Every structure is written in structure tokens, then in C-alpha cells.
Amino acid sequence: NPTPTPEIVDIHTHMYPPEYISLLSARDTIPLVRTFPSSPDPRLILLEAELPSLERALRDPAAPLPGRPLTKHFTSLPQKLSFMARHNITTSVLSLANPWLDFLPASEAGPIASQINASFESMCASSSSHSHPGQKLFFFGTPPLSAPAPTILASVTHLTTLPHCRGIILGTTGLGSGLDDPALLPILHALADSHLPVFLHPHYGLPNAVWGPRSAEYGHVLPLALGFPMETTIAVARMFLAGVFDAVPALRMVLAHSGGTLPFLAGRVESCVAHDEALAAAAASEKGEKRRRRTVWEVLREQVYLDAVVYSEVGLRAAVEASGVDRLMFGTDHPFFPPVGGQGDSEGEWESVRLNVEAVERALGKGSEEAGMIMGGNAVRVLRLFEE
Ligand code: 5CU
């Protein structure tokens, strides 16, 4: 009997359906899509850190192009399926890429979310009719966070009716004030009750001033390598300090980029909590209460999963140490980080994918049971991928 092909599941992989690209093409503030005479592909400009280069390019046709090329990798389902085949990925859990629907006016967010979520459902349902047999697609839905709470709750209910939905993707701003906002609790309860895990993903980074006056010389490195992970770390630390995990114990979060820097900084967070006079006094007055405050370490092992998009075995080992090998799930971040320069073309193997595969193999042993859990087994279990 031939050995069965191991299941490789990509839980961090994005797309923009056509409706979303139309929205961005009609905008003149970020996020937006713009064409430039010197570029064959339109440019996708998403991040605050890309504003200075957008302004320069609009003034000066010879200036470097802002943002990233909007290639078919962002929008085309056949392109996604062939990327999966090229990297032996059997199942992908798609999500809308940042900044999701955060920028929509309240009155438009609900109907647009329904449309986008239906579009993802139909992509997943139709994938079997494409040319790569055996590939499966699921998705994380997008809630209309700028809409009134009843509309957001209705969207959560809608997502529970879509057979390929396995959770939601969420940015760090929540309803506008962050994820420690008490107004978000009913929504987190609804997600937990519906068994929809939250895939937490950064977008806003840190304020541009942090990167200094020479930031343009460093391209996208500082906002993406450092701003994104710090944003995630801060958002989860705020949830932890506000007691959100204790208030919604059935909530399950999947943290992008292996939890930002949380596995590395959890000890420091704990120590700062233990040495804060006000928090220590509050903890002492709660001593009689039945439930003691759980530590960040406990939350990491009880309510949090981490993706394995960390590009090195050092970071991956820290993530495994913090959350457990049964809580990490492979991802690619496709279509971001395509090959550039001498790395080959975007139809070949992607260096960014190879780095994440190698990190798992180096940290846990190529072909080991633990590596198999991270590459697919955990996602199949956690996200119920055997259920159609
Ligand atoms: O390259 C980038 O800007 C990004 C982004 O915006 N979102 C993401 O998920 N990865 C990379």
C-alpha cells in the first residue's frame, strides 16, 4: 500500500474577492488600489507606513512605486489552488486580508460583509471543480465591525450557516477601542457559543514616528517585521489584563505570526503584573474569591493557538514551549512575501514558504509526529476540517 500523503494545512492564507478590489479601487485614501503608468499591475496600498511613498509617487512619476503589485495571487482562486499544489498544501483556510472591512461606514458594513462572506463560501464550495483533485478549502469569515452590534451579531449567525466557515478573522481595533473594550464582550460570547475561533491578525502596526526619519530607506522591514508582531502582542496583553479570557472561557483565539512576541515576553508580562502595586492590591482583595487569575502561560495553553508563520526554528521553539506542540498550525501568509530579486518567480517555490517549512523541520525533526501535527494534524482537529 502506498504511504498516504501527509495532510498539509495552511491556516494563514489570504485573498481579496473581486467585490473588495472594486471597493478599494474607488477610494482615494488608504486602503486603496491605484494604477501608475510605469507599472503593469495596479498597486495595492494598505499600510499607514506606505503613505509617504504614495504621496511621493503621486507627485513624481519617477519615484519608486508605493505598496505592492496587485497580482493575480491576491484575487484568483485558480492561482491559489496552483500555489497550494506547488507547495504540497492539501487544505487552505482562506481569510480576507487586512484591513478587512474596518474602514467601511456603519450603514454599508453589514451588507458588504454578507456579500464577501458569501463569496468566500462559494469559492470554497467550488474548489473541487478546479484542476487539482483532493484540495480542500475552508475560510475564516469577516464580521462587519464598524456596524451596530445587532448587525455584527447577525453576521456571526450568518457565518454559522455557511458550511465552509471555520471561524472569523479579526483585527486588533475591535469596535474601535481595542479588544479590551467591554462592548466587544457580547460578540466574543456569540463567537465562543458558535464554536467560531478568532484568527487575530495585525494591520495597524505602530505609529510611523517610531520608525524614525530614515524609515523610507528600510522599505517594509520595520512595520512588517516589528510593527505587526508588537501590535498583536499588545492587543492580546490588553485582553489578558482586562480579564477577557476569564470572562469568555470558551473563546478560542488563533494568533498570527506565532503570537507576535507573546511567547517570548509572557514571563515579563507576568512579572510586571506581580510587581504592580495596584494590581497586587486588587489580587489580594480577591483572595477569597473562588477563581484566581490565570497566568498568561495558562491562557496560552488553554485558549490560544498560534500559527507557525515565524520563519525560524528559534521563534518556533519558543512558540512550542509556550503553547504546546498540539497548538501550533502551519501557515504561509500567501500572497504576501512573494519571491523578489534572485529568489525565482512567483509561479515557482516561494522562499517565504520554504523558510516556514524548514523552521518546523529543524525545530521538531523532518517527518516527526510533532512536525506532522504542526503541518496539518492540529488544524484538522482544531478547525474541524474533516467535517464538510
Ligand atoms: O506585506 C504586507 O503589507 C502584509 C500585509 O499587509 N498583510 C499581511 O498579512 N502580510 C503582509
Helix content: 40-55%
Low-confidence parts, pLDDT < 50 over ≥5 residues? none
Q: Total number of helical segments?
A: 15
Main sheet properties: 8 strands, parallel
Radius of gyration: 21 Å
The average pLDDT value, as a whole number, equals: 95
Class by alpha and beta content: alpha/beta
Distance between the termini: 27 Å
Query: What is the third-level CATH name, the topology?
Result: TIM Barrel
Number of domains: 1
SSE ordering: EHEEHEHHEHEHEHEHHEHHHEHEHH
The strand order across the widest sheet is 1-5-6-7-8-9-10-11
Count the strands?
11
What is the name of the CATH architecture? Alpha-Beta Barrel
CATH superfamily: Metal-dependent hydrolases
Q: Could you say which small molecules are bound to this protein?
A: 2,4-dioxo-1,2,3,4-tetrahydropyrimidine-5-carboxylic acid
Can you tell me the CATH class? Alpha Beta
Shape: globular
